[in-house]
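Entry for the shared binder. Reason: the reviewer on the internal report wants the predicted structure included alongside the sequence.
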Amino acid sequence: MSELKLTEIESAAKDYILNLMLNGLKPSQPCDNSFDDEDFALPKWYDEKLYKRGQRYFQNNRSGIMMSNLYGLFSLISEPSGAKLLDRTGMSSTSDTAKKRYVSTTLHMLSWYQVELKPGSKSWESMKRVRKMHLHASRSAERNKLGMISQCAMAMTKFGFMGYALVRPHLLGIQHDDKEDREAFVHLWAVIGYMLGIKDEFNMCLKPLEVVEIICRLFIRYAFIAFLQFDTPTFKKLGEAFIDGMKYFVPFSSFESRLFLARRLAGIPGYQYDVDMSKEFFHRQIFNKEEFKMLEENFQNVPGFEYRRKMVFNDKMNLLDVKRIDQKKNEHEKNEILLDNMDENQNIFGYYMRIDDANGNNIHDDVEPLLEIFDLKHPSELSITQVDENNIQLYLNDHKFKTLSSKDQWLVKAGINHVNMITNKFARPFYEAGFSVVLYLMEKYHGEQNK
């Protein structure tokens, strides 16, 4: 890899990510060590005028921003270690528990966006409660030897709530022409992050807008494009529970159609259905060979993160494709497949992989942890295509849309049409009225649950 010449903004973004990944995952960096109501206070750098402008930006784009949260949630629960931790809590594993959890999350967030932030206010008490919940969940996970909620996890979770809205607004119907509005939105999330326990050194929203935008694009390129392709049993379980639980509020939906739209939003090659190709942007490579090596070694030493060694923060973008293997294949064809397991009758089952890098070298050993993550029960083969900025244009197409059922294709088209209508000044009031009805139903359901 030739020496990289970075701009000052790129260098700042890279330094933030390296610090977050190398230090934010350490046991010494949990979401909180303790919490005291008396110490709960606004940060010294809080700008009330800027915060309220960020709230107004939400009010002007609430449908699109709340939609970005939905797809951000899909991105977050697709991360294998986090999905496993969430599944163990039992709070999001069924349609009923998922409905209760995500309605509560939505209403918490709406208070942050809409209510003045001051001691005793609804938003103040909400943030305090959520912070206590995070601390309790992190300590519970540690006691059960499931890891902890780290500063890194908190920072990446925050991306799920604001990242797509910031750097992919054109796919969400968000009006984003005013730079000062976007700066205010970033400041709002800097404050929210602080109040929820993110330390300043790991709070990306304290950086200038241009740096934050690059950080978000790098998160997408190096992390979430990989995560969203991990169609694991746990992710599917949590995702289907979420969709089923929310059908009362959003009836025209399915796991497959929402996953397609989430992957489209992240810009995964193959999901460019009905997008403006001139806006499909992947930030160029900014890490050098030594930095990638540091990241690989770091992930290898974090329990549950071994899969990230080659699949996340790799110099190549990995495109995954799982295919069923015909059990009637002849023995010669079977022998060409790398077998992970054989039963007592020597029949192939489980998960098999043949993965070649750009030079045609097999890299099976580097992604061995994926065998456990996918946990496929039928003969299957995983192919991985590695691309970079030199050849990625060859893979930007909509061929994955054709793999959907006719029903899911219709749902995807309906979802895209919904976004288009949000940007139409004549149709927008009707969609805003519909969104208000959804919020009313959520508040009604939440009130009934808390009687």
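Summary line for the report: The beta strands are 317-324, 352-353, 380-387.
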